[in-house]
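Two proteins, back to back. First:
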Amino acid sequence: MDAQDAITAVQLVFSVAVLGYASVLDWRTRRGGNRVWVLLSAAAMALLVVRVLVDDAPIEYLLVLVPVVAILADVYGSSDEAGAWTKLLPLASYAVAIIVTVYLAYLWADDRYFAHLLTVPVMMMAVVVMYMLDIVRGGADAKALMALSIMFPFYPGIGPIPLISAGDPYAEVLFPFAFVVLVTAAVIVAFSPVAFAIRNLAAGEFEMPYALLGYRMDAEAAKTRQVWLMERMDDGTHRRYTRPRRDEDLPTEVDRLVSAGQRRVWVTPKIPFIIPMAVAFVFTAVVGNFLVVLMGL
């Protein structure tokens, strides 16, 4: 095993261990904890430095860590305290990240090796945007994707693995490893409406579109479950909705529904996305970038 394979093996083993541990936490509490992702991100940055040195790449390529650190400074350094500085810090962080990334792209984006490194801050900023748009819902999910972006600017490959390799050398730059993990996890979760539909049909409580997004349960029981409501009392009017609120006060909302005579309520479970992400990670590491097959690259 050469040095590159050794680094890849460490990346894979460390990532699987952290994702496995986080999956257990996600299943039990739906919370991963910042320490898990800080550890994975720190290890990823250290291994990225080692990889650049082992590959004998230009040392200045490590400037790619400047936007990475700037983004992480906002993600893990944000404060709930009010003040001009706390409001300006995120803007300053992303301004630095964007400006440095664009400048580095101008300098070295035509080098395929550095193009892989450049996917790290680009993917991290894309995750931030997806989180703000509610495409990636959980904070832990976003932090896990960012950590994986840092860990794998290059697709992990040892011997015959992954089974699928891209014919176009820039395909892996166009579809970074962390992005393919996200898409694969989303495909896994996309089968959940089928499971919900079967459950609701068996219970005789099928009602579109809620039957594809969740299920009904006793209102009082909902208070102690890892779920979001799909209905609430709004100024005395009973309303249903398909996009739950992140900041929902579940016990209070349930009490209002019960007071209005609602004994069973529609809920959607807080799907522990780290678990399908961990499965998607293993699948992508072993099988490879299935998107290149779909797009014929």
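And the second protein:
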Amino acid sequence: MKIDKRKKYYLMIDVETANGLDEPLVYDIGAMIIDNNFNVYREFSYLVEEIFISNSKEESLMDTAYYSWKTPLYAKKIQDGKIKIEKFNTIRSILLNAMKDYNVTTCIAHNGRFDHKALNTTIRYLTGSKQRYYFNYNTEWLCTMTMARDTLCKEVGYINWCKQDHSRLTPTGRISMKAENIYKYITGDYNFIEDHTGLEDARIEAYIFWYARRKRKKMNKSIFGKKYDKMKEYKRINNIRPRKQTKLEWQTLKWAKYQL
């Protein structure tokens, strides 16, 4: 497969989950390979077999999904060939292979911390923690909600528009940063209603990413915040404590700086 090496490619991803917000388990994964100019190269839409189809005699995991009433909608999508049911690790392999094909090292999501957490929680749940991370460790994560917060959500026009309708405000009266409201405003389609299914939501979030980048303003993009240190976070998660350097290591470092 030939790709344009001058372009930067991304994986836009959105997940729908069951089992509450503390330990979310993914049942719907929608994803797209995109570039900076909103060109779409591939799309993916999958239901996670282990979560979506429950053989347990107890309460089905899908009964805990906030949007479980959309199960008939998924049945229609399956019938129409718009979504497929696959094992969680099969979906993971498909996405990782696509990322390799397009040399993708960056994932994007709206409220990306949640998607990041949900994917990792699910793989740990299904593998008994034998696998702990859904994507490769060096994968960068960007958040369109964070990008919108530093651009669009500071603009007087958007602020005033949100204040015209209480549904566009948070319960505490702050400006809404929901993907649905942001998409309504930037497209002018005020009747738009978010599907809350993986691929459809990923599509509108890809548009928000493109729109935020067009602003060409200084913004925070990472899901972990401005001062996020990837190695520090890795050590914290894996309980790796710093140790004192040996005398030989110290001498080596001391002399090495003169070799630069």
